[in-house]
Each structure stands twice: as C-alpha cells, then as structure tokens.
Amino acid sequence: MDPVLEPRKTIGLVAHDNKKADLVEWCHYNREMLVVHHLVATGTTGTLLEQELELPVRKLQSGPLGGDQQLGALIAQGDIDFLVFFWDPLEAQPHDPDVKALIRLAVVWNIPVACNRATADFLISSPLMTAGYVRATPDFDAYLNRFAPK
Questions:
Q1: Which of 2, 21, 45, 80 fits a 20 to 30 Å CA distance from 54?
Q2: What is the pTM of this model?
C-alpha cells in the first residue's frame, strides 16, 4: 500500500559548504512555509538553520561523518517526504559516494528532491506541500525475490 503523506511533511535539508548560504537564504525566504513542517538536516547545515531560522531542526551527523547516510536511511524507512539538497557540482567532495547514494535513494523511494534553488522554489510552492498526497512507491517484490527458490 502506498503511503499517504500528511499535510505536515518531513523535509530533509542538506547543503555543501559552498551552498550553505544559499540554503539558509532559501529557508529564510520560505520560513512561513517551513514552520509547519518537520525539518531534518545534516549536522552543520542543521545547526546553521536552527540558529538562523529560530526553528527546531532535528540534526544528524555532519554529511562527511555519516549524516548523508543517516538521511538516506530515513528515506528508506519512509521517514522523509521531501529532500532539499543544495549540492555543489563544481567542487570535489571527499564523501561524494555518500552524496550519490543519498540522491539515488531519493529516486529509488520516489521522494521529491530539489538540488537547486529553482527546483526547491517550484516544489515548495506546489499545493501538494500543504495537502495530503499518496506517494507511489515502487513494488520491489520481484527484485527482492529474484534469488528465491522456485
């Protein structure tokens, strides 16, 4: 059965160092919208957002220390409804495999993901952000049972 997302969403927030100011600015601009949702962020980003927005943010580890993977686990568990990840495509990241895995999991579990401000603006302004929504989840039974005895 596909999960029904409540009007109050859980939003994952991540930003690489060169994009943290952009994410903070975007969050300030959208503060009225964000205040009604649950916010989860990787460590450094979460600390910045909590200080700047004066809103509660569930803070995970810093991205390079496992925060990206923690966020990915929350996605796989169905605990994240929307991911905003302002990543820096021009800067090499030491934890690049974790970054790719996080984005991959968002796609696997059909989570809306915004990797830049324009996409984040379009997604957060959607009427679906404040309404219930039935998110189609892929049926992985065939994949999970591919090695089962026949």
A1: 80
A2: 0.91
d(CA 15, CA 39): 14
Q: For 11-45, how does the pLDDT look when each residue is reduced to its tens digit (9 = 90+)?
A: 999 999 899 999 999 999 999 999 999 999 999 99
DSSP-based three-state secondary structure for 109? coil
Domains and CATH numbers, the chain: 4-144 (3.40.50.1380)
CB 45 within 8 A of CB 13: yes
Q: pLDDT means per 10 residues in the chain (150 residues)?
A: 84 94 97 96 95 96 92 96 91 78 94 96 94 87 80
The two three-digit tokens of residue 73, written as one number: 């686990």
Q: Are 107 and 66 in contact (CB under 8 A)?
A: no
121 in active site:
no
